[in-house]
């Protein structure tokens, strides 16, 4: 990798980097030297010139995302060993395996590659870049993927349209970096089948982070009437039916998502009479459903992506949970989640407590829920824990 310049930090501002936190904020920088632009590799040094590592430069609050630490410099084939090490972590967790052939391969800071997401869908790698640097290096990343998977690789797709708006519209072009298309594509998760469309679907096409939580839901669904709100393509619904739920209702405001949810029910050859879809706003749907459901899933999209919208998000989570608590049958179970990184676990917990007070229901916590092992969180970057959830029992 070509290192284009040098970033010198202010005195006393190297503490977090020496402890392997991967972000350097603009206020910590004393001087910038060299021919540096967004996406450049840069060397980072202390105020006295001591090397701290290298990373990607990008104008903004987070100015450098660190990729190496100490005196090491990035090798020309930097990405191949990094991707191979991340794959080793997944294989130790039996991914891919006989029952599951889709998983998150690279989880940004959790795998030492800030700004990079790679999801694996049974022979297809889907890349998202959340930084200029990873966008600039996308073809090198694709080459590393080819080296690792060889003949097992069908295609590499770069999903630029779903990355943050740091790229101009002319740069935000989705493309196949290797191979050809083939969507929708069937994958298997805990022996359940799903269609994945990385070209038109949200994120990389499927929400892989709920795999283990979907499995837990199944354990509580046999003989129950289940409501899956914000269902997207019906992941929780499929698990509930597979586990023997009597009735499953899937709700989403997107007609396109509901259409795929129906197809996933058909794909798994379930009895269609067990499942019904509703294209509706969840808040509207919940209004007149008193005592109809034994299990309710609340898995909304991120209500807040920035700190300045956190208060509004908390109010949204509070209202959503209170509405569900009011209508669920006595002895019912609610699976409630937040994927908003700016709403931490304690704040989410406190918000759910507030909802229970509003609903005037006695509530017990059965389980604390989180993201699975293929979405690892670095000890040095606790911000990587974004998915938090609770399994609640209501008297």
Return the structural class: alpha/beta
Order of helices and strands: EHEEEEEHEEEHHEEEEHEHEHEHEHEHEE
Largest sheet: 7 strands, mixed
Number of β-strand runs = 20
Number of helices: 10
Mean pLDDT metric: 95
Our measurement of the CA-to-CA distance between the termini, rounded to an integer number of angstroms, reads: 59 Å
How many whole angstroms does the radius of gyration measure?
A: 22 Å
Work out the helicity level. 25-40%
Overall geometry: globular
Task: Write up what this structure looks like.
- It is a single chain.
- With 395 residues, the chain is α/β, with parallel strands linked by helices.
- The chain has helices spanning 15-18, 79-92, 132-136, 138-149, 211-219, 235-242, 255-267, 282-286, 310-327, 345-359; strands spanning 3-9, 23-25, 29-34, 41-45, 51-57, 62-69, 102-107, 116-121, 124-129, 155-158, 175-178, 185-189, 192-196, 225-229, 247-252, 275-279, 295-298, 332-338, 363-370, 388-394.
- The protein is 26% helix and 29% strand.
- The longest helix is centred in the last third of the chain and has 18 residues, at 310-327.
- The strands form four sheets. It has a seven-stranded mixed beta sheet with strand order 16-15-14-17-18-20-19, sandwiched between helices.
- The protein contains ten helices and 20 strands.
């Amino acid at each position: 990798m070509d290192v284009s310049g040098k970033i010198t930090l202010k005195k006393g501002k190297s503490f977090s980097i020496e402890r392997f936190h991967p972000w350097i904020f603009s206020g910590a920088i004393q001087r910038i030297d060299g021919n540096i632009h967004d996406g450049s590799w840069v060397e980072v040094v202390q105020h006295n010139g001591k090397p701290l590592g290298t990373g990607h430069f990008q104008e903004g609050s987070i100015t450098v995302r660190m990729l190496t630490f100490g005196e090491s410099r990035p090798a020309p084939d930097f990405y191949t060993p990094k991707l191979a090490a991340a794959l080793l972590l997944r294989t130790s967790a039996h991914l891919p395996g006989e029952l599951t052939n889709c998983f998150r391969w690279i989880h940004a800071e959790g795998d030492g590659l800030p700004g990079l997401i790679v999801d694996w869908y049974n022979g297809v790698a889907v890349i998202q870049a959340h930084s200029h640097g990873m966008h600039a290096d996308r073809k090198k990343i694709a080459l590393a993927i080819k080296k690792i998977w060889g003949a097992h690789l069908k295609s590499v797709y770069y999903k630029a349209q779903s990355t943050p708006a740091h790229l101009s519209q002319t740069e935000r072009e989705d493309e196949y970096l290797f191979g050809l298309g083939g969507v929708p594509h069937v994958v298997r998760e805990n022996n359940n089948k799903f269609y994945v469309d990385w070209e038109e679907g949200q994120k990389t096409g499927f929400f892989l982070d709920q795999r283990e939580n979907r499995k837990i839901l199944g354990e509580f669904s046999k003989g129950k009437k289940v409501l899956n709100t914000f269902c997207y393509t019906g992941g929780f619904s499929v698990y509930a039916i597979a586990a023997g739920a009597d009735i499953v209702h899937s709700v989403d405001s997107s007609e396109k998502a509901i259409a795929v949810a129906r197809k996933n029910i058909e794909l798994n050859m379930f009895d269609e009479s067990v499942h019904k879809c509703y294209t509706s706003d969840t808040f509207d749907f919940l209004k007149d459903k008193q005592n109809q459901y034994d299990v309710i899933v609340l898995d909304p999209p991120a209500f807040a992506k920035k700190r300045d919208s956190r208060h509004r998000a908390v109010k949204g989570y509070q209202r959503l949970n209170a509405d569900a608590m009011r209508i669920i049958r006595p002895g019912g179970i609610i699976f409630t989640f937040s994927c908003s990184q700016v709403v931490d676990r304690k704040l989410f917990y406190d918000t759910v407590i507030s909802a229970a007070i509003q609903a005037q229901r006695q509530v017990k916590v059965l389980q604390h829920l989180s993201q699975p092992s293929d979405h690892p969180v670095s000890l040095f970057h606790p911000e990587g824990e974004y998915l938090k959830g609770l399994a609640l029992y209501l008297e």
